[in-house]
Amino acid sequence: MRSLLDFIVRHSYVFLFILLETLSLILLFGFNDRQKEAFMTSANSMSGTVFRWRSGVEQYFGFRKENALLVEENARLRAMLYQLTDSQYASMENSMSADGVIVARVIDNSVRKDDNYITIDKGRRDGVAQGMGVYNPTGVVGVVMVAGKRYSVVMPVLNGNTSISCKIKGTDSFGFLEWEGGDPYLAQIKDIPYHSVISVGDTIVTTGFSSIFPENIPIGTVSDVERMKNGYTLRVEVNLAVDFSDLGWIYIHSNTRDPEIDALYQQIGR
Amino acid sequence: MDRDLFLHRLFSLLLLVALQVLFLNRIALFGYATPLFYIWLIARFDSSMTRSGVLLWAFFLGLLIDLFSGTPGLNAASATLLAMFQPVFLKLFVPLDRYDVIVPGSSTMGGRPFTGYLLLLTVLHHTVYFILRSIPLGDWPVLVLKIVFSAIMTLVFMLVAELVSPNHGPKRS
Q1: B67: nearest CA in chain A?
Q2: What's B151's domain CATH number?
Q3: Selected residue of B14, B24, B26 to mutate for chain A interface (largest A Cβ count, 10 A)
Q4: Which domain holds residue A232?
Q5: Which contacts qualify for B46-51: CB closer than 8 Å, 24 or more apart?
């Protein structure tokens, strides 16, 4: 008996090892997706704050490029404004406000994983909610997945679970943009009907169906089209407009969904 | 436990966590190689530490990394397993006739044994880490590439760290 006790005391580290390892594995596999989202620490303010410090330092190195992007966007917007007639301009000026748009900074980001996530420095406190669309001057970035109090996590296009309603600019052929992993500059659309007229170089934009995004935000350009094995649909490779390895300021589309559309979707279980 | 030693260790831990989550996690050379340099803390544990001590330090090190990387349990699990083997590996590479406290390093162990010791630690840790991370397993060649490339990067980081700081840290009397 004594020697057994001795043995246990001398080898207590083995029990400690088993305890710690079990704990880790419970954390690793015992979490369901919802709990994992909560753990997605980036949304919790401690790591959010740390990532914001880093981003604050890095910001200084990207100013020049980011400025160029913003000036380009301004030029585009101005060119569009000039095409308006006086009366259109006047009525727009009265009704315009920046209400539907929240501006945020990307403070953490990855492009090399199978499921990438982006952390931004705005949260529920600033009006961000789950399901809002995120874009930047060059195009679509992703959709808000978890909105924390001061920070949020965005599921970018570069995530295996992403599905964004999109169409070919100027037409009504639409499909859903997905990402198969690998190349951070390429995404795919798989369910465009084969009779659609689509060719390399066409621009892909958002549809505005779901009101997650405004209509006609650029997504990318078609780089390859091939017929799927089933024969009925096309597989389209899209060169993404956004350089995900270099994200700075982003816009969040906060126009709330029409509750009636939501209720309808709920009825059909979507 | 010696208070200075404890604080020194805590400081190293925080420094390594910061380095890992702020910079190293974002490196992905060729899409595969991410250095997991934080195991340097475990590699430097000396032979006077109790085995439970080694386990606890490693567990909290891994847990902190997890907290900032959005990977619950992944680094904690692989670091704890590594900590179970670190004292064993250290004995493997140290001459049998030594009974004094050994602080792992090229000056105490000799360059080659120390490199071998680091290599063994790195390969064990990275194998466990990447297997756990890629469950459900499917793409074996990619998994092996990730382990090999990342291990090389980690090893390079550790050897550089060893060169830069040959024998610092409070000396034990």
Answers
A1: A41
A2: 1.10.1760
A3: B26
A4: 164-240
A5: B46/B101, B46/B102, B46/B103, B46/B104, B46/B172, B47/B87, B47/B90, B47/B91, B47/B94, B47/B101, B47/B102, B48/B101, B48/B172, B49/B87, B50/A13, B51/A13, B51/B84, B51/B87
The domain tally of chain B equals 1
Q: Are residues A55 and A14 in the same domain?
A: no
Query: In terms of domains, do A14 and A99 share one?
Result: no
- Within this chain, do residues A138 and A196 fall inside the same structural domain, yes or no? no
Whether ipTM exceeds 0.95: no
Strand partners, A227: A234
Q: Report the gap between the CA of B111 and the closest CA in chain A (Å).
A: 30
- Selection from A116, A105, A91 nearest residue A181 by Cα: A116
Spatial separation of the C-alpha atoms in residues A89 and B111, rounded to whole Å: 75
pLDDT of A36 > 60? The answer is: yes
Whether residues A179 and A257 share a domain: the answer is no
Q: CATH number for the domain including A132?
A: 2.40.10.340
Chain A residue with Cα closest to B19:
A54
Do A124 and A180 fall into the same domain?
A: no
A20/A131 same-domain check: no
pLDDT tens per residue, range A60-103:
777 777 888 888 888 888 888 787 777 777 776 666 555 678 88
Question: Can the peptide bond before residue B136 be classed as cis, meaning omega within 30 degrees of 0?
Answer: yes
Write out chain A residues lying below 8 Å of B50, CB-based: 13
Of the candidates B26, B70, B73, which has its C-beta nearest A27's C-beta?
A: B73
Nearest Cα of chain A lies from the Cα of B19 at a distance, in angstroms, of: 11
- A49 near B CB under 8 A: no
Q: Are residue A85 and residue A212 in the same domain, yes or no?
A: no
Using the 8-state DSSP alphabet, how is residue A125 labeled? Answer: G
Question: Which residues of chain A have a CB within 8 Å of the CB of B31?
Answer: 112
Residue of B nearest to A110 (CA): B26
Q: How far apart are the first and last CA of chain B?
A: 13
Total of domains in chain A? 3
- Residue B142 pLDDT more than 80? yes
- Pick from A160, A171, A183: nearest CA to A239: A183
